[in-house]
Write a structure and sequence with these properties.
The chain has about 600 residues and is an alpha/beta fold. The protein has 23 helices and 12 strands. The longest helix has 27 residues, at about 215-245. It binds adenosine-5'-diphosphate and magnesium ion. Adenosine-5'-diphosphate (ADP) binds near residues 370 and 395.
Length: about 600
């Protein structure tokens, strides 16, 4: 747990980073050159227009579904909101399309906030079903409202124009569409690579851990939902001015499902995957519509059937979609460069040693009939390392979950520095300075060690979506990363900093969780079996680290089964058995206590 690597210069990997940027820039240039190819049929350009429009929606879905794990069958509805808004404003009221862009996007985002507040908190399959329900309802509304032209829709919608130039044909609007697509990819990449981005990536797989580090997961889900709706709105606005007409047909659930296919076929790895997914689905449909009547003859619409089969086969072959195939051609993404010279984040004051930092009074937790924690009382003093021990099932982890707000109490009171914290959310408790690790590690396997640990510093930054997507958060990010790197080195994982967390051994993941908890700048650190799976010398390193933290004024409460480790390290021990506190005192007192000996060795001892 030394600081040896802290002084080594950061390895600059800028060349790899710029090689990746060059790839994307080349891709963008190639796209922009397509309409200039001599003799290229307009039909192809129109196809590319449609691919761009669909890609915009699919980028949002990659974030929402691929990264955030929320399935929405309502994206076409958001396109419709914006398309109808701009059609009404421009066709009926003569507004400039550029001005109506802002209004259309604002109205769609407002609708997304309202629909999101209702549907986003739904868990499991209720969320997709919820989006399906309002997707269908609003689609019918589009076709029934008189002022939206019922099933005929609104026509003509004026084209986009700049100065005297009108974007009338598919060749000119091509550039508008693809500028938006490229901006959207760029901003979404920025967003994912930020404080909010880490919170978004934690939604799937580590949301309870994220809550314990101050992430408001419900709000984060809503942010992603509204962001995806924003991209769909831009697509809908562009569509209305490209077609110069709107009607309900393209905004139904069928279209929403197709957008989902694009996001899934593209793959969750990168926002740019949406372009490949959109291209793939659009071209596949186009080819099938032309090829199948030729093969089978007649008027039967086999394309939907074949389309479905092809998609299922692809997902069978590659659950990650097409993106891994693209990724293979790309240079490896560069490791983030840690700037050691940024000003350190401010630290919270430590409570004076000896003061009661944590106080449990008659704390009880019942799971139906089972009393997991049975009216337990004990307190911990600031500046000590305390142990919470007891046989398996004694209620130790449940006690941790009660203190950190992960579980609600059945009865009793918990105070942290004289303030009652039972009833507070995990986020509020984290904000007060209680950091924790989990007995069953909760890390994001496909995220780097650095990103995982930086999630722990969530509450020490404040950058939101807007500054992240515009990359105005770099100074704060550098501070968060410097702090994360410092904690990673401190716990001895320096050489693994840029590896995927999933490649670490279980014992190392427990240590990673300690670094993550330290990033919160806690005054009280709760460690649930931190030494499980560690080798002897690693346990010694852990002891040294915890002693050092104590000397810096940190209070530690740990659950551990290795008695040698606990007896050597702790100042104070509380013993639980079957949810009841059976002993409390110094290690020497506790180890001689008859009830403890009996609990550990059985009645025969
Ligand atoms: P320890 O960490 O001391 O091994 P736990 O606190 O995990 O013990 O569990 C205490 C008891 O509560 C066990 O009998 C366990 O099965 C039960 N328990 C823990 N969590 C839950 C839960 N979410 N639902 C029902 N029972 C639970
Ligand atoms: Mg436990």
């Amino acid at each position: 747990m030394s600081n040896t690597s802290a002084t080594s210069p950061p390895v600059s990997t800028t060349p790899a980073r710029s090689r990746r940027s060059i790839f994307f820039a080349t891709l963008a240039i190639i796209i922009f050159l397509v309409p200039l190819i001599p003799g290229i049929p307009v039909y192809w350009i129109t196809l590319l227009d449609n691919i761009g429009l669909a890609a915009l929606v699919a980028i949002g879905l990659i974030l929402l579904t691929g990264v955030g794990g929320m399935t929405s069958f309502g994206q076409a509805t958001f396109c419709g909101f914006a398309a109808y808004t701009t059609a009404v404003l421009c066709a009926y009221h003569g507004m400039s399309p550029w001005l109506s862009l802002f209004i259309a996007v604002a109205i769609t985002m407002l609708a997304a906030v309202v629909l999101g507040i209702i549907t986003v908190p739904l868990s499991g399959h209720f969320l997709p079903l919820g989006t399906l329900a309002w997707g269908i309802a609003i689609f019918y509304l589009f076709g029934k409202l008189d002022f939206l032209g019922r099933n005929d829709g609104i026509t003509p919608v004026p084209p986009l124009s700049i100065g005297g130039f009108q974007f009338f044909d598919s060749r000119s609007i091509f550039y508008v569409i693809w500028v938006f697509v490229i901006i959207a990819v760029f901003m979404t990449c920025n967003l994912l690579d930020s404080r909010t981005g880490r919170a978004i990536r934690a939604l799937r797989g580590a949301s309870s851990a994220a809550e314990s580090f101050g992430v408001d997961t419900t709000r984060t889900k809503l942010i992603v939902f509204v962001y995806a709706a924003l991209l769909a709105a831009i697509s809908g606005w562009l569509y209305a001015h490209m077609q110069r007409a709107v009607n309900p047909t393209p905004f139904g659930v069928g279209a929403s499902i197709e957008y989902l296919f694009m996001a899934v076929a593209g793959g969750a790895g990168h926002p740019a995957a949406a372009i490949f997914g959109a291209a793939f689905v659009t071209l596949l449909k186009e080819i099938l519509t032309r090829l199948l009547p030729f093969l089978f003859g007649g008027q039967a619409h086999y394309e939907e059937v074949v389309f479905g089969i092809v998609l299922v086969l692809i997902l069978q072959k590659s659950r990650m979609g097409l993106w891994p195939l693209v990724e293979r051609l790309l240079p490896q993404p560069a490791d983030p460069v840690i700037d050691r010279h940024v000003p350190a984040l401010s630290q919270r004051p430590r409570p004076e040693a000896g003061r009661k930092i944590l106080d449990l009074q008659m704390v009880r937790k019942q799971f139906q009939g089972l009393v997991a924690v049975n009216d337990v009382s004990f307190s911990i003093k600031a500046g000590e390392i305390a142990g919470l021990i007891g046989p398996n099932g004694a209620g130790k982890s449940t006690t941790f979950n009660l203190v950190t707000g992960t579980l609600p109490l059945t009865s009793g009171e918990i105070r942290y520095l004289d303030e009652r914290i039972d009833g507070l959310s995990p986020r509020q408790i984290a904000a007060r300075g209680i950091g924790r690790t989990f007995q069953h590690v909760k890390v994001l396997a496909d995220m780097s060690v650095l990103d995982n640990v930086a999630l722990g510093a969530h509450l020490r930054g404040s950058a939101g979506v807007v500054s992240a997507s515009l990359r105005l958060d770099r100074k704060e990010e550098a501070q968060l990363f410097a702090e994360a790197a410092r904690q990673i080195e401190r716990v001895g994982l320096g050489e693994h900093m840029h590896k995927q967390a999933g490649s670490l051994a279980l014992g190392q993941l427990r240590i990673l969780e300690i670094a993550r908890a330290l990033c919160l700048d806690p005054a009280l650190l709760l460690l649930d079996e931190p030494a499980a799976g560690l080798r002897h010398f690693e346990k010694q390193q852990l002891s040294t680290l915890l002693r050092q933290l104590r000397s810096e004024g940190m209070t530690v409460l740990l659950v551990e089964h290795d008695m040698g480790f606990v007896m050597n390290l702790t100042d104070h021990i509380v013993v639980l058995d079957f949810g009841t506190r059976i002993a409390e005192g110094t290690p020497a007192e506790v180890s001689k206590h008859p009830a403890v000996i009996q609990a550990y060795l059985g009645a025969d001892a």
